[in-house]
C-alpha cells in the first residue's frame, strides 16, 4: 500500500510512528502519564499532550512511545518494540493485575510479590513443578522453576562431559520483596528433581528442614516485612557424579547484631527470642529463668512483640525439630536456649553511679536478680565476677596493671557488647553445625557420596538489596557496597553476553560504552585512602573518633565525583551510588567496625563452666571475627599451612576488612560460574494485594540494575530477529509478498541459510534504504535503534487496512446477530404474554371448580363425621374400660416390685454395714501399727536431735565464756596501754610490768614520752613505713627526762643482767633505737598472732555449727538412703530382667540386619546394572533430544506465525477502539430510542389489553342480557297466556272490558254486571296481582348491573341511563318492557274498576296505537296534571261506587309495582317514565299488545 523510504539516520517517522507516548509526571519521580502526539513541527520536534491536558514539546528521537500489549502482557520484555522505563512499568503493571508474578527480561527473572496466597499457592504445586522439569525456558510461562531447571541442566551437561559450568543464581531485592521465599522455592525444585529416587539420600530433606533454624535465629520483623532476613547467605548445593544432591554448605555475611540490643519502633528482635518465650515448656522456662516477653528490654522496647497470623509457639516446635535434624544433642539444644535466656537477662541489667568508688558504675539493687540469672546461664563462677567484668577494665601499662572503673554509659555499652557477642557467636556456631550436617559425605548423604567431596554445585545467593533510609549507618554502607560490587558483575555479564552474540553472528561492532561503577567502588575499598581503609586506620587508634574519621574522608575525597559532603550535612557524607545518592551518618562507625569485646569479658566467657560458652569463645576474644566461621564461600579451606599465623593476624581484622575479604571471595566464586539473576520487587509499602505503586517499583528496578541492563543491551543493535521470522513478519511491506514469503519458507525448510539470507537482503533493500541501519548476521538481522519501531509502524498501517475490512464484516455479523436475537426475544415475549393470559383464565376457572369441589367434599365430610362420631364415643368408652383395668394391673405390679426391692435393699445394707465395720477395724489396726512405727522412728530422731542440740549448746556456752574472757583480757590490756600512754604508770614499774607483761611495758615506756607522744601501740602511718625519725626523737627525749622508762625497757630487752640504775647512761642512741624497733616489731607480731587466733576461733565456731548441721543432714540422708535402698534393689532386679530381654531383642535384630545387608548387596548389583541401562538411555535421549530440537524449531516457527496473526488482530484493535466507542455511543442512542419505542409499545399493549378486557366484559354482559331476554320472553308468554285466560273468564262471566263509550258512562253499569259470576273487583285484583308479580321480576332483573350484582337505590330508567357500558338497544328494551307492563297493569285496573272515565275517552278518541310516540301519562306526581290511580278528575263518585272501589285500592297502593302514593319503590320512580298505552278494546286490544311485544323482542 505504501513504500517505506529511508535515508540518513532513519526513515521518516511521522507517517509510521505511533501517536501514543509516555510523559514524565512533573512532580513524582517514577510516575509516567500516558499521552499522545498532538502536533509535529518542521524542526523535528513534536508537541505531546498528556491525559491531564498538560502539553510538552520534545524532540522526535526523545519520544517514549507506548506499546500495544496483548491481553496477558509480554512475558519477555526484551521483545517489546519500545523498551524503556515506562514501557517496563506498564508491562509489569499489566501482568501484575492479571496475576502473573514472574516476567523475564532476557536472562533476568523479575518476581513481583503478590501478597495474596490465592495467587501464589497454585504457582508452586507438584504438578506445576513437574511441568517445568526437562523443558526450556521459552516453552513455559516465566517462573523461578525455569531458572532452577536451567541450572540443573548445566550440572547434567557437566557430568556428561558436554561442557557446562557450575551455576550461581543471584537473588536480590528489598525487604519484603520475597527473596527468602524465592530461594526456598528454587531449593525445593532442586531437591525434588535431584534426589535420584534413593530413600537413603536425606540431604534434600535436611537442606529444607534447616531453613526454620536459620530463619528463627537470622530473621526478624521489620517495618517492611514480617520475616526479613537480617543477614546475607550463599547456599552452595552440591551434586555427585550421578547429578544427585549430595551435600550443601551455607555461607553467611554481615549478621545485623545491633538488632539484638535495639530495634526501631514497630519492629521486633530476632524470632528466636519470642519463640522461646512463648513456646518453651515448664522445664525449659525453669532452666532458663524465663518471664514474659514484656519483661525484657531487648524484645519489648520497640512496642511490638507479636506478629498477626504467626504462632510463635508453633514456630518454636519447628525450630527444635530443625535442631534435632542437624544433629544437635539435647544438651546442646538446652545450652543454645540458655544463651538466649542469658541475653534476655542481660537486657534487664541497669547501672547507677557508685559515689563510694569515684562515681564508677555498679549494678542497681533491682537488677541483682537478673545479674545472678545472667551469671548462672553464662557459667560464671559468681555474680561478682560478671559485675567486675562489666563495670571495670584491666589496663596494662609498662608491665603494670591498673583497674579502671567504667561510667554508667560505658557499663551499658559493655553489657550490649556482651549480648551481641553471645548471640553472634551462637548464630555462627549453629551455621557451622548446619554445614557439618549438610556436608558432602556427612550424615544423611547418599551411600555413593559418603566420604567424598564434590566440585559440582549450584550456588543461590540471598543478599540484601540496596538500602536507603532516613538514617543510614555503617551497616547500610556495607550493604550498598556489596550491591555496588554485584552491580558491576551484573553489568559485565550483560555486556559479555552481548559481545558473545555479536561475535557468534559475525557482526562488525565497536566497544560499547556502559556505566562502570569501579570509581565508586574505589572510593569505598581502594587502598590506602578508601573509606573502609580510613575507617580501619581510625578504629585502630586509641584517640580516634568518628569526627576525625569524617574529616579524613572529606580531606581525601572532596574532589571525587561520587563523594559529597555539603555544609548543611553535619556529621555525615554522601556517596553517589548507581541506584541513587545516600547520606551516611558517621556516628557509631568506629564501634560498629571494631565490634570488639573487651578481653576481660572474653576471658570471663572462656573460663565459663558451660562447655558451649567455652567453645564459642575458645578461638578468639574479639567480635570482629564474628561471622567469619562458615562465611567464606566455595574454595575456603583448600590452602594448607600457616593457619596459626593467619588466625593471629585475623584477630586484628575489623568488620569492614572481614566483609571485603568475604565479598572478594564470593565474587571469585561467582566469576567461576554461570550466573542467573532473580530480581524481587515489592509492589507497595503496605504489603497489600492488588496494589501497584509505580514510583516505588521504578525505584526498585533502578536499584536492581534492570534498566541499566536494558540500556547496555540496546546501545549498539538493540533489536534482532531471525531471518525467516523477519521475512514472514515484514514481507507484506513489499509488492511481491507471496514470492518472497514462499522462497524464504522453502529455503528455511531446506536449511539453506545463504538462500534465506539473500531473500532477507532483497526485502531489506525494498523496505529500508541505508545499509548503516542494520547488519545481517548468520541467523539474525540486527537493527539500529528506532528502525524496528518504524518497521512496526509501517506494518501496523498496512495491517490496519485489512483490519478495517475485517471489522466491517464483524460489525455486519454482529448487527445481524443482534437483529435475530431481538426478533426472537420479541416472539418469546409475545408467546409469554399469551401464555400468561391463558393461564390467568385457566387459574380462575380452576379456582372456581376447586371451590365447588371443596364445598361438596366438605358436605360429604360432615356427613361421614356425623356417622363416625357415634363410633368414636363407643371406642372411647371401651378404651377407658381397658385403661382402668391396665392401671389396676400396673399398680399391683408396682407394689410387688417395691416390696421385693425393699427386701433386697435391706439385705444388701446389712451386708454392707457388716463389711464396712470389719474394714474399718482392719484399717484402724493397720493405721495404729504404722503410727506406732512412725512414732518410734520420730522419737529416735527427736532424741538424736536433742543430743545434738545439747552438745551444740554446750559448745556455744564454752565459746561464749572463752570470748568473754578474751574480751576482759583485751579490755585490761587496752586500759593498761592507755595508762602507759598517758604517763600514769608511776614509780611502781613492777606493777605495770606485771599488768602488761614485760615486753609490752618496755615498749610502752620506750614509745611514750611526756613531751612529744607518738602514735599508740598497734597504729602505723598511712604509708606503712615505721616512724624511725619520730622514734629517735622520742628516745632522745626519754634520755633527757627521767630514766625509769628507759631502764624498764632495757630490762625488758636484756633481762635482769642489766643493772637497774647507773648503767643505762652507758647505752648509746643507736642501742636505744634498736631496742625501740625490736619492741615495736614484737608488739606488731603479738597483734597479728592475736588476730589470727581470733579468726581461727571464729572459723572454729562456724565449722562447729556447720558440722552440726551436716551431721544432722547426714543422719537424715542415711535413713532416707536406707529406705530407698530396697526400692533401688527392686528396680535393679527389674532392670536386669529388661536388659536380658533387650539382649535377646538385639540378637534377633542383628540377625535381621545381616539379612538386610545381604539384600543391600543384591540391590547394589542391580543398581549397577540400572546405571549401565541409564547411560544407554542417556545416549538414546541425546538422539531424541536432537529430534525434539527440530520439533521445537518447527513449533517455534508455528508460534511465530500464530503470533503474527495475533499481532494483526491486536494492531487492528487499537484503530478500531475509537470506532467501537462511536458505535457504542450510537448503539446506546439507538437503545434509548428503542427503549422509548418499547415503552410506547408496552403502553399500547396495555391499552389493547384494557380494550380487550372491556370487550370481554361487554361480551359477557351481552350473553347475560341474552339470557335475561330469553327469560323475559318466557315471562311475557306466560303473561300473554294469563291475559288471554283472563279475557276468556271475563267473557264467560259476562263481564267485558269497558267499551269505548262516551264520558257519560258511569261506574254503576260496571257494578250491575259484576253481580253475575265473578265480581269485577276480584277480576281486577287478580289482574293487578299477576301484573305485580311480573313487574317485580322485571325490576329485580333490571336492577342487576353488568357484573350480575344488585344495583341498590336505582329505578329501571335510572339504571339504564347510568350504565354506560350497557348497549342502547338493551336499555330501550328494558325501558319499553317496564313502561308497557306498568301501563298494562294500570289499564287493567282502571278498566276493571271503571274508576277512570278518561281512559274510555282516550280510547274512543284514538283509532290505533301510536308507534312513534307515547300518549300522555295516566298520572304523575311531578305536576303532570293527570290524576293518579284511585282518583278522578270528574266529581266524586257515589257512595256505592266508593265502597266497591275501596277494598281493591289498598293492595294496589301498597305493592311495589303500583304508582300510588303509598308504594315503597314506586314512590321513588318518576311518573313521567311510565307512559300510558292506548285504550284496549276486547280481543283486538290483546292482539295489538302481542304484536307490540313481538316487535319489542
* Spatial strand arrangement across the major sheet: 8-9-23-10-19-13-14
* Mean pLDDT across all amino acids: 76
Parts with pLDDT < 50 across at least 5 consecutive residues: 1-17, 446-453, 621-652, 984-1046, 1056-1065, 1297-1318, 1341-1369, 1395-1400, 1405-1490
**What distance separates the N and C termini?**
91 Å
Number of strands: 26
Structural class: alpha+beta
Tell me the overall shape.
extended
Rounded to an integer in angstroms, the radius of gyration calculated over CA atoms is: 63 Å
Q: Estimate what percentage of residues fall within beta strands.
A: 5-15%
Summed up, the helix count is 44
How many strands, what sense, and barrel or not for the largest sheet? 7 strands, mixed
Helix content: 55-70%
Short description:
With 1497 residues, the protein is α+β, with helices and mostly antiparallel strands. 60% of the residues lie in helices and 8% in strands. It has 44 helices and 26 strands.
Structural account:
With 1497 residues, the protein is an alpha+beta fold. Helices cover 60% and strands 8% of the residues. It contains 44 helices and 26 strands. A 7-stranded mixed β-sheet has the order 8-9-23-10-19-13-14, sandwiched between helices. It has a 5-stranded antiparallel β-sheet with strand order 6-5-4-3-7, with no helix packed on it. The longest helix has 224 residues, at 1069-1292. It is extended. The relative contact order is 0.05.
